[in-house]
Every structure is written in structure tokens, then in C-alpha cells.
Specification:
The protein is of the alpha+beta class and 190 residues long. Helices cover 26% and strands 35% of the residues. The protein has one domain: Cyclic phosphodiesterase (Cyclic Phosphodiesterase, Chain: A, Alpha-Beta Complex), CATH 3.90.1140.10. The chain contains 4 helices and 9 strands; from the N terminus they run βαβαββαβαββββ.
Length: 190
């Protein structure tokens, strides 16, 4: 079994901007730059033979290269926030890619939870009791003009998540370039 997800990785320059933003936030457990990503589909624990089928299905996804911009900040958890994230400016090409990824994963035989796609890049996770909610909400509101990018999206990845403390370790299993009918799938070296 492999705990896996499909995601967009971020350019180093964008991660650097996010790290600067994190430093101004009154939160514990910041996500390290190497773990910053935008999840397209969380697969959960997948048997390895089925993961191979998912890999083949993802290699058939054809979508043109497009650009994304991060714009603003958000909190998940309402009055008991537990996740700080950068928001993604609306982009139909991202919605299209995400829908094609979900369709490919389901076609491969993997059931996914029916969730609304809320594109974001997690910057910090925390227990609600570990932060001053009102202070964090004020800082997030003040950073509403945050913007990073645009940056090109020219590939997506299949990743493995290894749960560790203090933070999970993510490993790229395969990379799928965009804008190519039979992607030159690049397997990650193990």
C-alpha cells in the first residue's frame, strides 16, 4: 500500500515568496518549502497494483500548459482555524486539469471521495488551541493583497506521502508533462 496524491509542484521562486509570507504569520508548524504543493486529487492508501493502473491512466491525460497565480490567504476551520493556506486565483485551465485527473483516477478503478475542489497551497497546520484565532484572522485579512506569480504549469506529479513527525515526507513517483499526447512520463529515481 502506498499513501498517494496527485499534485502540482511549485517553482522555487514561488516557494521562496511563500516562506517570506509564512514568517509574518503567528502560527506553529509551518509547511517546509519542499512540501509546498497544490493537491489535484488525494488518493489515500492505494494497493500497489492499483497505483500502477492509476499511473497508466494519468499518463493519458492531455492538457495544454497554462499559468497560475496565487492570490490572497485563507483559513480552513471557521472560528477554530487549523490550516493556513495561499489561495489560487480562478483559472479554468486548472479546473479542467483537475477534472481530467479525477476522471483518469476513477477510470483506473480507484474510488475518490466526492469533494469540491478548493485549490490552495497549505502554509501551516496547527491545533486551534495552539494559536490566537483573532490575531491570526487579523493578520490573514491584512495580507489579503498577497499575490505570487504568474508561473507556468507544465507538468503534474504522482506523489507518495510517508507520514512522519514533525512533517510528512513527500516523494515524487512520476511526473506527467502537459501539452503532449503521450507524455514523456519521467519516473522518479528511487
Amino acid at each position: 500500500m502506498t499513501r498517494a496524491f496527485v499534485a502540482l509542484t511549485l517553482p522555487t521562486a514561488i516557494c521562496s515568496e511563500l516562506v517570506l509570507l509564512q514568517m509574518a504569520m503567528p502560527v506553529p508548524r509551518r509547511v517546509s518549502p519542499g512540501n509546498m504543493h497544490l493537491t489535484l486529487a488525494f488518493l489515500g492508501d492505494v494497493p500497489d497494483p492499483l497505483l500502477e493502473e492509476v499511473h497508466h491512466a494519468l499518463s493519458e491525460v492531455v492538457v495544454p500548459v497554462f499559468e497560475l497565480r496565487l492570490q490572497g490567504l485563507g483559513l480552513f476551520g471557521g472560528g477554530r482555524a487549523h490550516n493556513l493556506h495561499a489561495l489560487v486565483a480562478p483559472e479554468p485551465a486548472l479546473e479542467h486539469l483537475q477534472a481530467k485527473v479525477v476522471h483518469a483516477v476513477r477510470r483506473a478503478g480507484l474510488r475518490l471521495d466526492a469533494r469540491r475542489f478548493l485549490p490552495h497551497v497549505t502554509l501551516a497546520r496547527f491545533a486551534p488551541a495552539a494559536i490566537e484565532q483573532a490575531r491570526l484572522e487579523k493578520v490573514v485579512a491584512g495580507a489579503g493583497l498577497f499575490s505570487a506569480g504568474p508561473f507556468p504549469v507544465d507538468h503534474f506529479v504522482l506523489m507518495r506521502s510517508i507520514l512522519r513527525q514533525p512533517e510528512a515526507v513527500y516523494e515524487v513517483l512520476a511526473e506527467y508533462p502537459l501539452d503532449s499526447p503521450h507524455h514523456r512520463v519521467r519516473e522518479a529515481s528511487g
